[in-house]
Amino acid sequence: MSDTTEADFQALLRIAGISFTEDRYPVMLDAYRSWLKLVEVLDEPLPLAVEPAAAPRLAEFRLEEPRA
């Protein structure tokens, strides 16, 4: 994580016009840092060898007729 994370967070708050009470600042900063970590993980695609299989096609399933 860069040393400018907190400065970036403050700049984004100013740009977006978001404000909250001072006691919420540490929690919101922590949430922002957690979001950055999540984005790093999601930004890297999985190799094809470990990519989850595609969902089965619905046409392959035969629906039963309703019972009388």
Structural overview:
It is a single chain. The chain has 68 residues and is an all-alpha fold. The protein has one domain. Helices cover 46% and strands 0% of the residues. The protein contains two helices and no strands. It has helices spanning 5-16, 25-43. The relative contact order is 0.10. The mean pLDDT is 80.
- Kindly give the count of domains: 1
N-to-C series of helices and strands: HH
Taken as a percent bin, the fraction of beta residues is under 5%
Low confidence ranges: none
Number of β-strand runs: 0
Radius of gyration: 23 Å
- The structural class is mainly alpha
Binned, the helix content reads 40-55%
The largest sheet, given as strand count, sense and whether it forms a barrel, is:
none
How far is it from the N-terminal to the C-terminal residue, by CA? Answer: 64 Å
Structure summary:
This protein is mostly helical. The protein has helices at residues 5-16, 25-43.
What is the element layout, followed by pairings?
Layout: H1 5-16, H2 25-43
Key phrases:
mainly alpha, 68 residues, elongated, 0% strand
